[in-house]
Amino acid sequence: MNIKTIILAAGQGTRMRSVKPKVLHKIADRALLHHVYDTSKQIQNNSIVIVYGHGGELVKEELQELDVDWVEQKQQLGTGHAVQQADKFINGDDKVLILYGDVPLLKKTTIDKLLANVSQNSIGLLTVDLDNPTGYGRIVRAKDGSVLKIVEEKDSNDKEKLITEGNTGIIAAQGDLLKQWLSKLENSNAQKEYYLTDIIEMAVNDDIDVKTNHPDTQDEVLGINDRSQLAHLERVFQLQQAEELMKQGVTLRDPARIDVRGKFDGIGQDVEIDINVIFEGSNTIGNRVKIGSNCILKNAVIGDGVEILANCIIEDAVVGERSRIGPFARLRPQAELASEVHIGNFVEIKKSTVATGSKINHLSYIGDTTVGSKVNIGAGTITCNYDGVNKFRTVIEDNAFIGSDTQLIAPVTVGKGATIGAGSTISRDTPENQLTLSRSKQMTINSWQRPVKKS
Ligand code: UD1
Ligand code: CA
Questions:
Q1: Ligand 1 within 6 A of 169 CB?
Q2: Domain 227-436, architecture per CATH
Q3: Ligand 1 atom with minimal separation from the 195 CA
Q4: Measured from the CA of 223, which atom of ligand 1 is nearest?
Q5: pLDDT tens track for 156-213
Q6: Quick check: CB of 23 below 6 Å from ligand 1?
Q7: Which CATH number describes the domain made up of 3-221?
Q8: What pLDDT does 54 receive?
Q9: Secondary-structure breakdown of the chain: helix, strand, coil percentages, each rounded to the nearest 5
Q10: Which of 13, 42, 43, 192 is packed most tightly, with the most Cβ within 10 A?
Q11: By the 8 A CB rule, do 400 and 381 touch?
């Protein structure tokens, strides 16, 4: 049994007031359409067709990596017309699932229940009980409870308007039946559109059972039409992810104040995350990691027992076990710290490795550098890695001690166990185990007097 998923994504989305097609707006840094795609990708034996229209080239360009067939709906003549455009991809023995590209939070478990209702004698319809059904098609049922038809709000009478069971638009049917019904759609209605919903009445006339199921929450089937709904579903989605993390054994000081815009390749036990932390891309977090407030982690690998204090930014970087970072530290791409490294406030590390037990605690820039183990880098140390044209490497060997306010002019090597006197400008390699400093001699001018103000 093959499943064919048709995702309708041709609508314009005028209420977004955007030059961007609606389905490219994002939740958690992922296009709405991409969310729908991700969910349908979880279905076995499934192939996907996307019906695009408004701004379609942009949609295809941005989402070209999706494994789908694209089909254009040149004019938006209704949901039924949209599905008709995909007719050539539908085989008679497929189970066809219709999804909307602007309904991002529909769950796989809800889809499974819908598909289970599809057979040669039955079609599946996802409906929802609504507090306010305005704008939705209404599910009209017979006295015995069986579904008779869907009536669009604009075509409904006063009695039908009182119905609170709404059509989500999400439907599944056997391919051969759907193809027959699609070929019979007409647009003699209030909106002069080809309504997909008309297939329900056709099914009833053909003695096909309409079986309904419901989502767990209304948010699951909420379609995004404006920025307010976009913001609402962003929070719903973030809260779902927060719940998931807590289930996995993560402590969140406030599940409403964490944003995960991507995924975890792994997250350990007894991790503690303070408020306003943002995770982007793919992060790996070890056991017992503590992350302070206002940190941003992007594609970071954080080892067991690491403590990240408040206000750090870590991107494409690796932090070894039991290291301590921040507050206010920045680890840039290719910063690789071994275990028990201390990086303190206002320290920036880029494209550098720092071996076990080394400390860079205050106000430093370390770029294109290899730092050995047990090195101590004093406050205000700068690696001068750039001459305006080329970048050069600095090497600081094990057990070196760099005095405060030192500039290391690359390429340069500080030998094992070397000590650099504070305030030095080091432009040549320094020998192992010795003190090197470059500093003009201090002097005192005995006869000098402070100027006094002339009257
Ligand atoms: C549709 C349903 C309505 C349901 C509502 C749920 C029909 C006739 N009506 O209403 O019963 O309660 O969804 O939100 O099906 N689309 C296209 N091409 C088109 C028209 C729409 O691709 O020509 C896509 C849109 O991009 C969107 C989806 O289909 O993803 C629904 O379109 P929308 O205009 O929101 O549906 P409604 O007519 O409001
Ligand atoms: Ca709609």
A1: yes
A2: 3 Solenoid (2.160)
A3: 8
A4: 14
A5: 999 999 999 999 999 999 999 999 999 999 999 999 999 999 999 999 999 999 999 9
A6: no
A7: 3.90.550.10
A8: 76
A9: 20, 35, 45
A10: 13
A11: no
